[in-house]
Each structure stands twice: as C-alpha cells, then as structure tokens.
Amino acid sequence: MTADTGTAPDSPAWGVLATPAGLVGLGWSGFQIATAIWPYVDILIQRSAHVSFATALALLLTSREYGRPARWLNLGLAALALMPPVIIALDLGRINDRFSGLDPVMAWDYAGALILLVLLIEVSRRVLGVGLTSLAVVFLAYQFFGANLPGLLGHNAANFTEFIDIQFLTLDGVFGIPTGVSLRLVFYFILFAAVFEVFGGGRMIIDISLSLTGARVGGPAKTAVLASGLMGSVSGSAVANVMSTGIFTIPLMKRINYGARFAGAVEAVASTGGQLMPPIMGAAAFILADYLQMPYSEVIIAAIIPALLYFACVLVSVDFEARRSKLAVIDPGDVPGIADTVKHSGHMLVPLFWLAWRIVSGFDVTAATIEAIVISVVVGTLRRSSRTSPVAILNSLVITAERSVNVAIPCAIASLIVSVIAFTGLGTKFTSIVVALSGGNIAAMLGLAMVATLILGAGMPTSSAYIMGAVLIVPALTYLGLEPLIGHFFVLYFSVMSMLTPPVALSAYAAATISGSSPSATGWQAMFLALPGFIIPYAIVLHPGLLLVGTLGDTLSGLLMVFTGFIAISAAVVGWLFRPLTAVQRGALGIIALGLLWPDLRVAVVLAGLLAVFAVWLYIAAKRDTGARPG
Predict the structure, then answer these.
(1) Mean pLDDT throughout 384-411?
(2) Residues of 186-206 as b/e, b for ≥16 C-beta within 10 angstroms?
(3) Contact 84, 148 (CB under 8 A)
(4) In sequence order, what DSSP letters do the residues of 86-110 get, joined into one string?
(5) Residues 163, 261: one domain?
(6) Same domain for 298 and 381?
(7) Domain end (from 372, 393, 409)
(8) Residue 459: inside a domain, yes or no?
(9) Are 275 and 530 spatial neighbours (Cβ–Cβ below 8 Å)?
(10) Residues 176-213 pLDDT 10s
(11) In terms of domains, do 244 and 366 share one?
(12) Residue 47 shares a structural domain with residue 67
C-alpha cells in the first residue's frame, strides 16, 4: 500500500500506516479495542461506527483504481462516511428516549441515513461485485414499490419515513444482528489471526503440518489439507486463507507433479472447509448461534464430526490421487522434523489451545479471543525466534481492518435485506411459496433448499449467503418438521460449498491465480473433490447423531455408515482403489456410497460387506497385475 498524498517515512512498514487507508484502518482497530476494554459505549454508536469505518476504508482501498482527482473525491466520501455515528452520538439522548414509529424523524436523521445507505451500496458494488449489490437493490425496490404488486407478493410497508426510522435509528435495520456479529465477534477473530500471523503462528501451522505429512504419499497435498484447514479455522475466510497458505502449498504440490488444476482444487477445498472446522469456523457460524440463541460452544461441538468427516474424505481423496498418478514422495531430508518445529515455534500453540479451551468450556467468546490475542503478543515477544517490532504489530491492526471490510460490508448489506424481509412480511410469504412448490415433501424441500442456497451464494461471501438462507429457507425446512439446528446446518454447509460451485467458485478462482490453471477447470475439479461436502448436509438430516443429537449409538452408527460411504465416494471421484477403476466400477462404488447413507443398519451391513468384497477383489487384482503388494 502506498500513500496517495504526502511523503511517507523511509520504512515501508511506516509507509503503510501513513496512508489515509492505513490511518482509518488503525482508527477502526483502535476503536474496536477501546470498546472491548470499555464496553459501555452505546450499542447503536458501536454498530454505526463499525459500518461507517468499514465503508470509509473500502472507499479508500478501492480509490487506487482511479486517477488523482477521483482519489481526492474518494477521500472526501470517506470523511462523509464517518459522519453517521457522529450524528447519532450527538443526539443519542433523543434517539434512546424516542418511540420508533411514533416520534418524528429529524432532518439530520434523514441525512445520516441517506449518506450511509448510498455509500454502503456503492462500496458493496466495488468490494463484493454486482451479485449481492444487485440483490440489495432488488430488495430496496421491493420495499418502495412492492405495494403495487398484486396478490401474495404485495405489501403496504412503503412509507419512506418509517424505512429511515428502522434503518438508522434502531437495531433492526443496517445495524441488525449480522452487523452485531461482525462487530462483537468476527472482528476480534480476524484481529487474533493477524496478530497470530505476525508472530509466526501461520508459518508454525504450515511447518507442523509438513512435519506430520510431508514425507508420506501425497505429502504436500496432505500438508495443504491440514495447514489450510487449521488456518482457515483461525481466519474464517476461504479466499484469504487460499491466498495466505496457497502461496506455499500449491508450489509444493506442483513440485512432486500434482497437476496445476488438482493442486489448486486441493487448496481451495481445504481452505473453504476451514469455515466448517471448530473452534473458530467462520462468521456464518457466529450468526447461526445468534439466530438459534444458543451458546457458540454448543455450535462448535455440534460441528466437530461433520467437519472431521469432510477433511478425512479430502485426505483420502488426495492419497488416492497420489497413488493413482504414482507421484514421488518428498525427500525426508527436506521435511522439517516435528521435534525441531515444536522446539522452534511450538510456543505459538499456546494461544490456540487457550482459545479452544476457553470457547469449548463456555467462556464468553469475545473475551476468550481477546485473551488469546494478549497471549499471542506475550509468548511471541518472549521468544527471540518470533519476536517482532511494534510497527509490525501496528501493521497487523491495519491488516485486520482491511480484512474485516470483507465481512462488515456484506453483513451490513445482509442486515439491510433482512430488515426489508421482516418489514414487508416477505419471509412468511416466501416460506408459503417454497412449501407449496415442494408439495409439502421434505425430500423435495431439501433439494429446493440446496439449489436456492447455492444460487444465493454465487459470488457472495459465505456469511451473506447463509443469512439469506437462514431468513428465507430455514423457516420452510422447520415448517416441514426439520429440527432448527439441523435446518441451519443444512443451509450453512451449502452456503460454504457455494464458494466451490461453478460458475462463480470464488475460492477455487483464487487458488487458480496461484496454480496457473484455468479458473473454470479448477472450480469443477474442486467441486468434485469436495463432493462429500455437498452430501454431508443430507447425511446430517438422515443421521442427526452426526451433530451429537440423540444417543451415543446414533452418533457412532451414523459416523461409521457415512465415513464408509465417503471412502467409496472418494474412490469413485478419483477413479482409484488399489488400482485404476473403470467407469462401471466407479459407478458401482457411487451407488454403494449413496446406499450407505440410508439410516438402516441392515442395509448398511449388506452394502459395507459388498464394498469390502469389492475392495478385496481389487486388491488381489492389483497385486496380480504388479506382482507385489500394491501401494
């Protein structure tokens, strides 16, 4: 990042801090830290400042694409974007004492709301693209012109004053639940990830993963799966994780002759899955906990088994691909020893373990994250190998703010859309329409829910896709008898999988920029590699025990049946099980795999037996062909 005006100090690090974007980012992080230490600032001021800082920073970060006059204009717009929380703070007494819908809306309320909404839509266009922005515009149009629609879709909630009242002066508009989650939880996890990285935590995770898997068959790909899964859990962002770990893991995979397309797909699938991996997961998981009004610790406990199934299956797939392609193994001398890695940087595991323990034990998530940040600074500074400069720590605050833009803006847009849905009654109407389309059949409803969530998530951040699904689709699922936790997890998984689904597979496209492969081809390869991720939501419906709902027997039987089926799916997708498979053999494995998902123990025993016989036959055939024990 370079300064737009003025002269930066000689140090590149100081140069980042001296730019307008750097100063706004530093101010945003400072504000968040201050409100964490002193949480008595009014919540409306906190949320409005969160959205305003994100909007201002987004304007400054995107101004580099324009000429100098436009950059000056963006600087002025950024200053304007910071005004709404000032307007609220200066008139906070009146706002807190008024009755929404009854007391008048003042001229400066209109001004603050219009400034915020117009600039928010503009930065959404710049940062998120046309997908989510167009959706927001459509919902705004429905807000003001939906009264003219005939029949079920019509409404009588087109009053402009009431709209401004709700959006700007209450916590039911732009400053709603999604914005609250971004403010209260996600920002601090992003801050933890940035501080953790600046003290070498990210490199430590990669080195430990390489130590554990590097010298094995398919070692680099398995390293990518482990490292990207762990880092994705810390960062909670698929694309950011691809760009941070992929620059190391993708060249490592290509070095032992994994194809560029497959290497990019592995990184994309693992990084995307990080949003499903406890203890942190992604922003959508925090919003899920808020919607269900349940402790976040219960959400991550429920998420453990499905996440492990996902990553276990990806590991099996990359192992099969390495054996099918007869890829070389990395020279053990090039792989760092686990003892040396732990000795050199193992102290950075302390904040990770502390954070996981505090969250699982039910401690306040925000407080636990702040503790982990402090511990990262303390243990990182105590060891010379990880010690860094104060300037680097300040830069991590700027990096935090820049990364948070990609969460805060979609959360604010999603809050706007959700408020329109609630204000116009569209949610209830949509539920009725979808239930009618499904004919009241739960299987048809699940299929519609999958397609709708994947379409909503096309080119959209996971959190936004999940929010839309939670508001529009989950009510229909629960209306037909699905438990709320299962319905929300169903939508969450497909919201995450939309990052891997062509034609707009964002994380796969990010990986393709590193691997040098075709973005489209990488997207399709990633989708097939992540096929278990598309099946897990249905497996959860059929086996609620996977979410630790019900008895221990339900959990164990569901786990064994689904995992066995996933091994068959991996073999069918890769085309290898002890030997290359024909199309007919792959089809047979796919049928067996799908049958194993059915929650009938007798069917599972028969199909598992068939799978075992088939595998033994393939093993014997492979041994006969090679004259040696197959690899």
Answers:
(1) 89
(2) bbbbbbbbbbbbbbbbbbbbb
(3) no
(4) HHHHHTHHHHHHS-TTTSPPPHHHH
(5) no
(6) yes
(7) 409
(8) no
(9) no
(10) 988 998 898 889 988 988 898 899 887 888 788 878 77
(11) yes
(12) yes
